[in-house]
Design brief:
The chain is of the alpha+beta class. It is about 50% helix and about 15% strand.
Amino acid sequence: MSKEYLGEFEELVLTMVGILQEEAYGNAIVNEIKDRLGRDSNLSAVHVTLYRLEDKGFVKSSMGGATNTRGGRRKRIFSITNAGLAMLKSMKEAKVELWKLIPQLKIVGV
């Protein structure tokens, strides 16, 4: 695994950017976390995490078009980079290897 470390929330946000692709912006990520995991997250925390992931080179951002529903404001859209995808794959592989080390538990009474 890379020497770079991602925390659990960073990994979650990075995964959501990969899932949402061209729809990956702050509010959409918050909603996706809620819908898929039933977990509340703070928009500010998501934004801080996105900028941290961008600083690490795991996501990049660009400005989307202005919309009337947003009062003419533009969305900052995030996309996963090759380095971000490699990080997610590496983290998944490491977790799978750890899961393989858990002894099979016998379920009593079944």
